[in-house]
């Protein structure tokens, strides 16, 4: 029997090996709420389905919501399996107040274990890599003290460069926000708290929701919640949920904004569902008169997810501001063309209210009434600044829109694409029949497809069994033949020697 790790690996291997038709894993968000999802160490799991165009019937399975790499969380359970598991949660709680009362010479941090050490703990970490003289300044910037978790499929803890972080803090302050819900943005949370403590005129506060439990060493429960943004799970239960709810609903929900920077390898659908739950939590503190208002949001994500994000949040627009990161090899400010950072800010705040820094190469377009990058030229045919990746885009009169400069119009596909693109088959629509007016789940041919796929599976199984039998038989015959030849050589050798 395959282990859970092996089965998840088989599903993922099928996704990467398919060359013909569409193959992929989709999140199933319409599962029966009466059937609770099984738990993994990261909270409730998500339901997924493996989809193959024109191939065998898909089977649904549960997997970790936060970890896309099975090396980090190998939980796997088929939907129709009944597995009863009990997980315990281990949290690291150190007495932060006791630590800061220690003399500087006794304040130590274990880099091997990524935790603050009290004097009684030093003996256990004697052979570890320990840093001494931890200052109050370092404690206020824990993201620079901790090692970043750089697995892009799990935590993807790429941290804002100070340039982008300071821009966001100033922008939020200038827009008049008094509270910032930082979902997966620890460095922004740090700078807001520094601004609050250093500037007496500043009245901006923040609450950090993050899956990295190490931050619980540095923040009290009213400023940090251990949280999984992929399934809206508060690890500390109802108490943490109430902290978040109170923060959002303070002053009847006025003056608060949510800023989120999810892992780039995360699925948009589960994130959108989670953010809508946070929006619903915020709306609970509103009166009926304000039911049409929206929670202001900054969703920081690569520009090529624009259509997916706008599918769930139609009021969002994408800003031209390039967000860069300290510990990412490519996403750095100052690069041009396709080498620049692809990370942008998606928001429901009107773009004419957001001023981008002119000294960094942004200009105000009077026709679009918003700030854009210098390379983003206004198209008189589209009546907008259309570039998204830092290059000047070209207008295609056949497609009636601007496209990337490297694309050409294909007469077969009847749209613009790369010169060496493939024109085979539909890329959208139903994976079973190829029609564009419906999806696989509502295909009228799904029952026929199931019968055909079942027959195909049986035929493949028969062929596989036959190949195994032929291989075993061939190996047995080859072994017999080799043995006979060996004995014949031995007899000949003995005769010659005699």
UniProtKB/TrEMBL annotation:
Its main location: cytoplasm. One of its GO terms (molecular function) is zinc ion binding. The keyword Metal-binding applies. Residues 1-20, 450-498 are annotated as: Disordered. Transmembrane segments: none annotated. It is found in: Cytoplasm; Nucleus, Nucleolus. Residues 461-471 have a biased composition (Basic and acidic residues). Residues 472-481 have a biased composition (Polar residues). It holds the Pfam family N6-adenineMlase. Residues 451-460, 482-491 have a biased composition (Basic residues). Keywords: Cytoplasm, Metal-binding, Methyltransferase, Nucleus, S-adenosyl-L-methionine, Transferase, Zinc, Zinc-finger. Residues 40-82 form the GRF-type domain. GO terms for cellular component: cytoplasm; nucleolus. InterPro entries: DNA_methylase_N6_adenine_CS, Mlase_EEF1AKMT1/ZCCHC4, ZCCHC4, Znf_GRF. Belongs to the ZCCHC4 family. rRNA N6-methyltransferase that specifically methylates the adenine in position 4220 of 28S rRNA. N6-methylation of adenine(4220) in 28S rRNA is required for translation. This is rRNA N(6)-adenosine-methyltransferase ZCCHC4. The lineage of its organism: Eukaryota, Metazoa, Chordata, Craniata, Vertebrata.
